[in-house]
Design a protein that fits this description.
The complex is a heterodimer of chains A (488) and B (96). Chain A is 37% helix and 13% strand. Chain A contains 15 helices and eleven strands. Chain A has helices at residues 10-18, 24-42, 50-65, 107-114, 157-164, 181-187, 221-231, 275-290, 306-321, 340-351, 354-367, 373-393, 419-424, 430-435, 464-476; strands at residues 45-48, 76-80, 118-123, 170-175, 190-193, 213-218, 261-265, 294-298, 399-403, 439-446, 452-459. In chain A, helix 2 runs antiparallel to helix 3 (50-65), helix 5 (157-164) packs parallel to helix 6 and helix 9 (306-321) packs across helix 12. The radius of gyration of chain A is 21 Å and the shape is globular. Helices cover 34% and strands 4% of the residues of chain B. Chain B contains three helices and two strands; from the N terminus they run H-H-H-E-E. Chain B has helices at 5-14, 21-38, 73-77; strands spanning 83-84, 87-88. Chain B has a two-stranded antiparallel sheet with strand order 1-2. Chain B is flat, with a radius of gyration of 23 Å. The chains are: A alpha/beta (488), B mainly alpha (96). Chains A and B meet through helix 9, helix 10, helix 11, helix 12 and helix 13 of A and helix 1 and helix 2 of B.
């Protein structure tokens, strides 16, 4: 094979490892040599975990020599720095957690460890997952490998870039309002947000608890199914995880689309949608129709309310979740203290960045006396209407297809001083979080300037299989996912 | 104006944040433009619509009250900014 090991997918490497044609340590060496060559240009990682990774690769090789292990044994994975890892700093992209070393693993990390996966490092992100560009990282922005002057998207921008630039084989991200799908779209990789409750949130540092989900960022759809298999499942440590049998998601791949009806919502093809994005998405829809799926118009009338609803609910939950950072039990404490109250205020004011403060302010305001009904309660009522739109739509179709984002990746700094403009770019991704639905972004083309475009497929609750079936079929007939940024 | 400079100062104190004059002015401006856009929600008829606080139908998850392992005290103190013996030290809060 003429491919380097670092360029391969999980399923390709799994076969090579199983047939003993390559060792996990060789794969890791290849991935780290790639990181050494390109990381300076991308800044995909906050920290590399070379020593941990080497030990994990040795353990994996031992397991494999005894013909033990699973799909992820010995596979180098990037981990978003919002997921707690025992003994490895977990910063959440924030100064306030710069030196935080968790004493426990997130459930998804335990699951990957049980397969003896290999962790290359902790990937860069917007502080506390608040952002759509990775510009809000305390550790500096991540650069899009297709154009280093552009953002990679966010908040899982580091995970998307690490996968796109071959600095890991696959990665975990988290998605509260599009934080897996939008960077996947901007970077030309696959990103999947599972149904809310499918994957445990235990050990995922909370941003907005009713919306947060962990999910895979991968080079192709098959890898997304493999990684989703590994992290899914009920967890008694997460009271919102759902006790429901997890299917083998890889079984959904390869089925034809004859039995699927695809809903196309007109509210997602609106003014402001980049013409190149619209063109690429329609080409993909036509291809999916050619493969046997039936298209149908569906109506999601409350779509234009999704951004305000999301930014009121998410910030309200965030203002409560982030109250714990007070400089007492863990994290940064201001040395400028005079009284307890001053210590709290100074710790938080010095420890949080501007976007986190903005969202805490917005959320605190939306929950405060006199404004609760007009903002938080109103948003929660409109959330019901948004959910009802989807319930109605799914009586008429199996899947809904839309663009992942209205535009390709924008320039670093372009929206930095205009938070509302930045928020409006999340219009197509936030509805799935508000309704708890699974959704995937897959590559579906490029702009004339060579920037990737993403197609979003939204499934009904717990119907990840249909979503993967459709995404896989599209991938098999298009091959956009095989294009790589030049970088060097 | 949806929100005044004074409102911003009040909300900041609720959120245990403190801002410079400049930051307060910037947040006042930004929060106003955000809240103005969010006004569009007021046009949606939500009479008799129940609010949703979850994405899927979840109920309180009970479990049996069985003691399990917990983190040892020294382990729990490892990330503390100022641990003292088995305590988290904070600035003095009671005047004697």
């Amino acid at each position: 094979m003429d491919k380097e090991l670092y360029q391969m997918t999980i399923h390709e490497l799994y076969r090579l490892l199983r047939d003993k044609k390559v060792s996990s340590q060789e794969i890791l060496h290849s991935v780290f040599s790639r990181i050494d060559a390109v990381e300076e240009k991308t800044h995909a990682y906050i920290a590399l975990t070379r020593d941990v990774a080497r030990q994990q690769a040795r353990d994996a090789d031992e397991k494999l020599s005894k013909n033990e292990g699973g799909y992820l044994t010995g596979i180098p994975l990037g981990i978003k720095d919002i997921l707690c890892t025992t003994g490895i700093a977990t910063t959440c992209g924030s100064k306030i957690l710069e030196n935080f070393i968790p004493p426990y693993d997130a459930t998804v990390i335990q699951k990957l460890k049980s397969q003896t996966a290999v962790f290359t490092g902790k990937t860069n992100m917007d502080e506390f997952a608040m952002g759509s560009s990775n510009e809000n990282s305390f550790f500096g922005p991540t650069h899009n490998p297709w154009d280093p002057d552009r953002v990679p998207g966010g908040s899982s921008g580091g995970s998307a870039v690490a996968v796109a630039a071959d600095e890991c084989i696959a990665a975990l991200g988290t998605d509260t309002g599009g934080s897996i799908r939008q960077p996947a779209s901007y970077c030309g990789v696959v990103g999947l947000k599972p149904t809310y409750g499918r994957v445990s949130r235990f050990g995922l540092i909370a941003y907005a608890s009713s919306l947060d989900q962990v999910g895979p960022v991968t080079k192709d759809v098959e890898d997304a199914a493999i990684l989703l298999n590994a992290v899914s499942g009920y967890d008694t440590n997460d009271s919102t995880s759902i006790n429901r049998k997890v299917p083998d998601f890889t079984k959904a791949l390869g089925r034809d689309l004859q039995d699927l009806t695809i809903g196309i919502p007109k509210q997602y093809f609106i003014e402001g949608l980049d013409p190149a994005v619209e063109q690429a998405v329609w080409n993909a829809i036509r291809e999916i129709e050619k493969q046997g799926a039936v298209l149908k118009d569906v109506n999601l009338p409350h779509t234009e309310c999704a951004v305000p609803v999301y930014y009121l609910i998410a910030t309200a939950e965030a203002s409560s979740n982030l109250a714990r950072y007070d400089g007492v039990k863990y994290g940064y404490r201001s040395s400028n203290e005079t009284s307890l109250l001053k210590m709290y205020e100074q710790t938080r004011s010095e420890g949080f960045g501007p976007e986190v403060k903005r969202r805490i302010m917005l959320g605190t305001y939306a929950l405060s006396a006199g404004y609760y009904d007009a903002y938080y309660k109103k948003a929660s009522q409109v959330r019901t209407l948004i959910q009802q739109d989807f319930v109605d739509a799914y009586t008429r179709c199996d899947l809904i297809i839309t663009p992942t984002a209205p535009t390709p990746a924008f320039k670093i700094g372009e929206k930095a001083n205009d938070p509302l403009n930045m928020y409006l770019g999340d219009i197509f991704t936030v509805p799935a979080n508000l309704a708890g639905l699974p959704a995937i972004s897959v590559p579906c083309g490029f702009t004339d300037a060579g920037l990737p475009i993403g197609l979003q497929i939204i499934g009904n609750l717990f119907e990840e299989e249909k979503m993967l079936q459709c995404a896989y079929c599209h991938e098999q007939h298009t091959q956009w996912h095989l294009q790589k940024p030049s970088l060097v | 104006m949806k929100i005044s400079k004074k409102d911003v100062e009040h909300v900041a104190s609720l959120a245990r944040l403190q801002f410079s004059e400049e930051e307060t002015a910037l947040f006042t401006h930004q929060l106003n433009s955000i809240l103005e856009y969010f006004e569009k929600l007021q046009n949606v008829d939500t009479t008799d619509v129940a609010p949703s606080f979850h994405a899927v139908d979840v109920r309180n998850a009970f479990r049996d009250d069985i003691p399990g392992d917990s983190l040892p005290v020294q382990e729990s103190l490892k990330n503390a900014p100022e641990p003292v013996q088995s305590f988290f030290k904070v600035p003095k809060i009671i005047e004697v």
